[in-house]
Amino acid sequence: MIQTPLHNDPRRYGLVARLFHWSMAPLVLVLFLLGLYMVTLDYTHPWYQSAPELHRSLGVLTGLLLVPRWLWRQLDPLPAIEGRRRERVVALSTHRLLYLLLALTVTSGYLIATADGRPLALFDLLEIPALPVTLENQEEPAGSVHRWAAYTLAALSVLHALAALKHHFIDRDATLRRMLGTPPRHLSTRQEPTTSEE
Amino acid sequence: MYGKSLAFIALALTLNLASAQAAEHYVIDTKGMHAFITFRIQHLGFSWLEGRFNRFRGEFDYDEENPSANRVEVEIDVASLDTNHAERDKHLRSARFFDVKRYPKATFVSKRWEEHDDGTATLRGTFTLRGVSREIEIAVTPVGGGKDPWGGFRRGFEGRTVLDLPDYRMKEAKILGPAAEKVHIWLSIEGVRKP
């Protein structure tokens, strides 16, 4: 970790991509669990107001990160995906689908929260205005999309994480390490004897 | 003698016809929206929360001579409830409260109109909400009636009643606390007379 290049190179992700990835991963996890939890809260529960407020703010933050992250992904060439051809196709499709589902979840959440035409707040820092046109009862279809996009996103994220662990522990390739920013295996202390001859 | 009784029958028939015609038929003006179905419910016992149903339709018969023949029918699209807060409205439409997917309509069909000496009236009828039908009473005050500036004839009333939410199997309503068990309904109904 002496050098931390901002850009990706063919063997690993750069600092920008890694920061985007590792800031959004816990955000999405917290948002999902908080979303599941907050809808079960009783009307008189102390968190009945604050849990959805936190969920909305973290959602705004996720949306604000998602746009530059996606742009960066378009601009900065990705490292080559490791694995067999079929694995590479599945991995790339999963990544794209994750982006699509993130966008759907964030957008539908925004449409629920702004269905009255009032803005959506990122804590006390910022207000995202509502669209100038709102549909009647748009919170209903937006709510359905939000729920199913979030469930699918959660399921696909689990698959994504399991695949990374499989690459790391079973295939023993660099898939996970290049997103963690740890040095390639031939420079690491956990090297295997056979690879040191390269 | 025979001619007299014939004349009497003719007169009776005419009177009968006249009284049948005296019941004027009105359609509630939901097109120009001169009609409102609003509700008020207490929030924690601290304040009043106001909402309304934006879509409904109905009609009434009004007979000045024979008010006991007055008749009202209203159908409400429950999903159109509006408390000026989308997330709350979504919650209220859910199965926890109005359950609009299973019970999209609420209806009121009158049974009896009792006119009082001071001009007010008590309207009794069957109100159906969430599949539960209850006899309710609405206190009616006539507001006015007459020719409108556009060639029509209108008549308007206001009505008040109080409903008990637990009556309509709105079990979740109890999470709102005891202050929110009663819903105060205020109606403003204007009808346009139909020929």
Q: Could you give the topology of this structure?
A:
The complex is a heterodimer of chains A (about 200) and B (about 200).
Chain A: H1 15-38, H2 50-75, H3 85-113, E1 120-122, E2 126-128, H4 139-169, H5 177-180
Antiparallel strand pairs in A: 1-2
Helix pairs in contact in A: 1-2, 2-3, 3-4
Chain B: H1 2-22, E1 24-28, E2 35-43, E3 47-53, E4 56-62, E5 71-77, E6 81-82, H2 86-93, E7 105-115, E8 121-129, E9 132-147, E10 153-164, E11 182-194
Antiparallel strand pairs in B: 1-4, 1-11, 2-3, 2-11, 3-6, 4-5, 5-7, 7-8, 8-9, 9-10, 10-11
Largest sheet of chain A: 2 strands, antiparallel
Nearest-angstrom radius of gyration of chain B?
20 Å
Quick one: CATH superfamily of chain B? Answer: Lipid/polyisoprenoid-binding, YceI-like
- The count of β-strands of chain A is 2
Rg of chain A computed from alpha carbons, rounded to a whole number of angstroms:
20 Å
- Order of H and E elements of chain B: HEEEEEEHEEEEE
Number of structurally distinct domains of chain B: 1
Could you say what the CATH topology of chain B is called?
Lipocalin
What is the strand content of chain B?
over 45%
Distance N to C terminus of chain B: 38 Å
Query: What share of the residues of chain A lie within helices?
Result: 55-70%
* Quaternary assembly: heterodimer
Domains counted in the coordinates of chain A: how many?
Answer: 1
Contiguous low-pLDDT stretches of chain B (5 residues minimum) are none
Shape of chain A: elongated
Overall average residue pLDDT of chain A: 88
CATH class term of chain B = Mainly Beta
Assign the CATH topology of chain A: Fumarate Reductase Cytochrome B subunit
Query: Level of helix content of chain B?
Result: 10-25%
Terminal CA distance of chain A reads 21 Å
Q: Hey, roughly how much beta strand do the residues of chain A contain?
A: under 5%
